[in-house]
Amino acid sequence: MRPDDRLNILIVTPWVEAGVGGVETTTRMLTRYLADAGHTVTTLTPSGGATVAEANWPGRLFARRMRSPVDRGHPIRSRLAYFITAPGDVAWIRRFLREQRIDVVNIHYPLGLFANMALACIGGPALVVSAHGSDLGANPASGPLETGVGMTIRIAKAVISPSGSFADRIRDRVPSSAGKIQVVPHGISAPAEAQSEGPWARPYVLSVGALRLVKNQGMLIRAFAKVAARVESVDLILAGSGPLLDELTTLAASLGIANRVIFLGTLPPAAIDRWQRHARVVAAPSPAETFGLAAAESMARGRPVVAAQEGALGDLVDDGVSGFLVSAGDPDGFAAALERLLVKPTMADAMGRAGRATIQERFSPAAMVAGYERVFGRVLGAPGWSSTSETRPKFDHPPNVRNRHP
Asked: What mean pLDDT comes out for the span 26-34?
């Protein structure tokens, strides 16, 4: 890559605390690998100074308080405060963008509090928005978009979705995104094979996710009850916390499997990694995943996955090759798929190897960075980008791009 090919990129993200969730994981990885590719990457977050100091972020990290146009708890007062402070905030952001010589601003998980950042990009750096999930209504039952998000999408030159199925939902929910959406899957690191002992004495099925209705753990527990009746000495491990804990605990007890369904609560990334590495099978029952990060991480660790065929998991898991796809509303089908892998370890191992190969070939950090570079090249008007080409060449940096800001 020639020196002129390198960009000054600003990543804007709500969270930088290690282990806080998929957005933090993705932006941390993207920041690291874009820098490894030769780009200059700066990160800006509304998180407080103490959080920034403890983040151990890979690169330059700045904190700046940002104000949403409307606080739904105080709509009139917050709107008035926003209009009073917005001109000064926009001016500060524009000055920051000039001082850092930013070419592209990449907002992750667009929230209303990023509206001023979007306004500051008018006539300045190209704005690219990366959607992750509930920010743009991953759940069909989501309420109205937060005030300011629609404006941010209208200003953006491109909107990145981690999967084709989520791209369709974005297009339906945010009409101003039409013609702007580009699919770039998240990058997943494929770690070395497990060497440590497993965290559980018995074989287990693992599911990682918040205990919420959209994650569909209730169906999974019902499916596992059918498995438990036919397969001895296997447990269901649920890693995650949420408002459905009591309801799901009661459900397991009512099915007579309370001693075989274990709720771990929220775990740090290192602990989740260990549970994923040693699972016999990983279950991903949610029909509303926008990418399926936990499932993809499990595949990277060589684990077969039984997943909902709806949503982005249908794009991730190759049915009959790296796992099985079953309707999210079919506990009998889920039970049959889980049981098949539990009683056929040779099949499970083969599917695990196939899943790991899929992650290495299609969902590597390098593939994610290449996808982002293609999108950045498009919004900067670089030659060599084709909207119809599946294999797009790396862009050549447009001349004098860093000097075009006012």
From this structure: 94
Structural domain total, the chain? 2
Measured CA to CA, the distance from residue 167 to residue 24 in angstroms comes to 21
CB 345 within 8 A of CB 312: no
Q: Give the C-alpha distances (Å, rounded to integers) separating 258 from 156, 168, 262, 281, 359.
A: 49, 39, 8, 20, 34
The reply to whether 329 and 217 lie within a common domain is yes
Q: Are 115 and 68 in contact (CB under 8 A)?
A: yes
CATH at 399: 3.40.50.2000
pLDDT at 21 over 90: no
Average pLDDT over residues 127-132: 95
Q: Work out the number of other CB atoms within 10 angstroms of the CB of residue 93.
A: 23
Residues sharing a CB contact under 8 Å with residue 186, sequence separation 6 or more, in sequence order: 22, 26, 29, 162, 291, 293, 296, 363, 368
Distance linking the first and last C-alpha atoms of the chain:
28
How distant, in Å, are the alpha carbons of 48, 96, 98, 114 from that of 64?
8, 11, 16, 11
Q: Which residues of 396-405 are buried (b: 16+ CB within 10 A; e: fewer)?
A: ebeeebbeee
Query: Residue 51: which pLDDT band, with cuts at 50, 70 and 90?
Result: low
Q: Give the span between the Cα atoms of 177 and 152, in whole angstroms.
A: 10
- Assess whether 145 and 15 both reside in one domain: yes
Collapsing DSSP to helix, strand or coil, 79 comes out as helix
